[in-house]
Amino acid sequence: MECLIGRKLHSIRQIVGIPQHELAVIMGISRSQYSQIESEKFNPTLNNLTAIARYFNIPYEFFLENNEELTGFVNNQLLKHKKVIEPFKNTNQENLVKNIKKCMLCAKNEEIIESQKDLIQQLKENNSLLKDKLKDCLENPPKKKAS
Description:
The protein has helices at 5-16, 20-27, 31-38, 46-56, 61-64, 68-85, 93-139. By secondary structure, it is mainly alpha-helical. The chain folds into 2 domains: 5-89, lambda repressor-like DNA-binding domains (434 Repressor (Amino-terminal Domain)); 91-139. α2 (20-27) packs across α3. The longest helix has 47 residues, at 93-139. The radius of gyration is 29 Å and the shape is elongated.
């Protein structure tokens, strides 16, 4: 049974909507080498396939087996990847860097907010304890020692 790795790579490109040179960069090869792989004239190395699998978060076995269930899973993963990268597709590098920095800042702000929530909760608990101690002191003042 043929695996047709080149067809599978072509399918990945079609689903995600990226050109040959981008997949070649991910694989660490030239665009012309990639073109030969896609046209089944040249076989990729296991490292090439592993790089693609890691990048798209798909099992590398996809390239080595003809399994409809695995193909369905891979297609879903690729569509998820496409949704993530779609907003940045026609963005120049400067804007892309700005967007990434914004995302990192938002994530950092969320971390800060979460840590502040924890701090506020601790302060509330401490405040409650202090109120209880103050109330106890007011209701039961310490007895004066007889001189």
